[in-house]
Amino acid sequence: MGISREQAAENREAIVSAADRLFRERGVDAVGLTALMKEAGFTQGGFYNHFKSKDALVSAVMARAMAANEVRMAQGVGEASALAASGDPAGPSKVGVEQYLSTLHRDDVACGCPVAGFAGDVPRIGEDAQACYAKGLAASLERMTAAGVGRGLTHEQAAQSAMARFSQMVGSLILSRAVVDADPALSDALLAAGRQAIEASDAGRANG
């Protein structure tokens, strides 16, 4: 007896959700279909009822992760607008950086920023998934650029600032995660250094 469309959609979402977690935690290449389907609660044979290939699944995961990240960023900008209205123009920027470069975000590999979470895998995945990643990264930079324009920067200044800032944030987070088990103190120091560097850059721009 077949299953309903609704159940099929739920099963597909369960597979994508499990793949999202495992890909971030272990890396795309390290996750086989047997482990993936077991994590999702299904047998391996059911995989091809939903996806033509692992590459197709990776593309679905990347599209889902980037879309969810855009929603989170939109909510963050809303919170930032409220902070700006409170009279502290540096507040939104500082809060966002502190949240991103926090030990909580560092330790939340499975649900954190997909730009950092998938950065190491992107060169080795299919073109469709790479395109999803690039589109999501561009959307994040565009949103940060718009925030910079809202703080009085020209579009060119805001775009350059967004790229430099996000590169600093993502790089600090990736390095911090890379050494957290071997050297927790260094991991914490990398996060702190990233926050301080961005804060100093913001202060210099404000004083300039």
TrEMBL record:
InterPro entries cross-referenced by the UniProt entry: Homeodomain-like_sf, HTH_TetR, Tet_transcr_reg_TetR-rel_C_sf
Signal sequence bounds: none
Residue span, HTH tetR-type domain: 9-69
Keywords, alphabetical: DNA-binding, Transcription, Transcription regulation
Top-rank taxon, per record: Bacteria
Molecular function (Gene Ontology), one example: DNA binding
DNA-binding region: 32-51
SUPFAM superfamilies recorded: Homeodomain-like, Tetracyclin repressor-like, C-terminal domain
Protein name: TetR family transcriptional regulator
The species this protein was found in: Pandoraea aquatica
